[in-house]
Specification:
Blueprint (H helix, E strand, L loop, with lengths): L11 H6 L5 E6 L5 H16 L2 E6 L5 H5 L10 E2 L11 E6 L2 H12 L2 H9 L1 H9 L3 H16 L4 E8 H18 L2 H7 L9 H9 L1 H10 L1 H33 L3 E7 L3 H16 L4 E9 L9 H14 L3 H30 L5 E5 L8 H12 L2
Parallel strand pairs: 1-5, 1-6, 2-4, 2-5, 6-7, 7-8
Antiparallel strand pairs: 3-4
Helix pairs in contact: 2-16, 4-7, 5-12, 7-8, 7-12, 8-12, 10-11, 11-12, 13-15, 14-15
Length: about 375
């Protein structure tokens, strides 16, 4: 029967202990336990392998802070206290991406104070830095690049959004390059590069009908805001692209390990397979699959059919209701385990060389450091 265990065994401890691995990226569909997995891996790297670790979540959910005993997370790494690192000498820090704060920090770092104030006051910047689709992914690349460049961390563990959004994370450099090289942007940049005339007056004089169409679609005020924003950021665009592309190359390098996280459900496994295909296309290092919430019968040799038959026989005899109920529950669990193995096999058959490890379903949600230790040990099969 196909099983997730047919795949090569994933040795997570080998990854966490390897000084050559500096970034671990956890990715997968929503609701599969990526945040918990990322936190458990970061905790284990600090406690068991003595690494100075930071875990970065891009998911706005607050579960990571809660599980690590922190009241909140923000754009600055916060050290997690009360963990067992006395023997190992490791450290654990945690943070959550604040895309507007990161964008603001980039502006402050790459422009003078007067220009920065002009950018911050621009309505288009205020909207883009807070709500525009794609900004989060650009800023995630910026933050990861910043953490990597600082050289303070032995290991950076990244908890990504659900996988299609995580694909945006991978696509950010290419999308940014397309935006910067686009015809519309070159038109918007023209005033800044031709003596400072407003975009609207320049386009009106040079492009006639085109300017009327743009004004009608965008509106005069938005066009003015956009022109001012582009002119103010003109000198920074090349830096955005260069840094994003550099981070992309880091993600392709041997110092990075991607871990897919899934549950044995059709949608989650389908997402994991889709992401694995993309990683292969992009030549990014896929280290393995973590299959969460796997169900296993206590007596694996007793299959569902035999268990159900025994329950029916006891019911006929009478006086064995409790035992019959246990057998029925076992039969249901055995059937679920078979279904999960069959679903997991879809990934294994498509990517037979990708190592995998399965984590048994826990009786309760993980909400503290002890729970994270349990998950970390289960992933590492120790």
């Amino acid at each position: 029967m196909p099983s997730e265990d047919a795949a090569p065994q994933l040795d997570v401890d080998q990854i966490l202990a390897d000084p050559g691995v500096r970034i671990v990226v956890c990715c997968g569909a929503g609701g599969v336990g990526k945040t918990t997995t990322a936190a458990a891996l970061a905790l284990r790297a600090a406690e068991q392998h003595g690494r100075r670790t930071v875990v970065l979540t891009i998911d706005p959910a607050r579960r990571l802070a809660q599980s690590l005993g922190l009241t909140e997370l923000d754009n600055t790494p916060r050290q997690v206290k009360g963990i067992d690192v006395e023997a190992s000498g490791g450290e654990l820090h945690a943070m959550m991406l604040d895309m507007k704060r990161t964008f603001d920090d980039v502006v402050l770092a790459h422009t003078d104070p007067t220009k920065a104030a002009e950018i911050f006051a621009n309505p288009f910047y205020q909207a883009m830095s807070s709500t525009f689709a794609g900004t989060q992914e650009y800023m995630a690349m910026e933050k990861l690049g910043q953490l990597h460049a600082r050289g303070e961390w032995d290991l950076i563990v990244v908890d990504t959004p659900p996988s299609r959004s995580a694909l945006d994370f991978l696509d950010a450099p290419a999308r940014l390059s397309r935006f910067l090289d686009g015809r519309m942007l070159r038109l918007l940049l023209a005033p800044a590069r031709s003596g400072g005339r407003s975009m609207f007056s320049l386009v009106t004089a040079s492009f006639g009908m085109f300017s009327k169409v743009v004004q009608k679609v965008l509106g005069a005020q938005l066009l003015t805001d956009l022109s001012g924003f582009v002119a103010a950021l003109d000198s920074m665009f090349g830096g955005f692209r260069q840094r994003a592309e550099q981070t992309y190359r880091i993600l392709q390098a041997g110092e990075t390990a991607f871990l897919l996280v899934a549950t044995p459900e059709p949608d989650a496994v389908r997402e994991a397979a889709y992401f694995a295909g993309r990683l292969r296309e992009e030549k990014m290092p896929l280290a393995g699959l973590v299959l969460n919430r796997v169900h296993r019968p206590v007596v694996p040799k007793l299959d569902a059919e035999r268990s159900r038959a025994a329950a029916e026989r006891l019911a006929e005899l009478g006086g064995h209701d409790g035992t019959a109920d246990v057998l029925r529950a076992h039969a249901a669990l055995a059937r679920q385990a078979v279904r999960e193995q069959q679903v997991a096999a879809r990934f294994t058959e498509a990517f037979p060389a990708v190592p995998a490890v399965s984590v048994t379903a826990q009786p309760a949600d993980v909400h503290d450091v002890d729970g994270l230790r349990t998950i970390g040990a289960a992933i590492s099969r120790s």
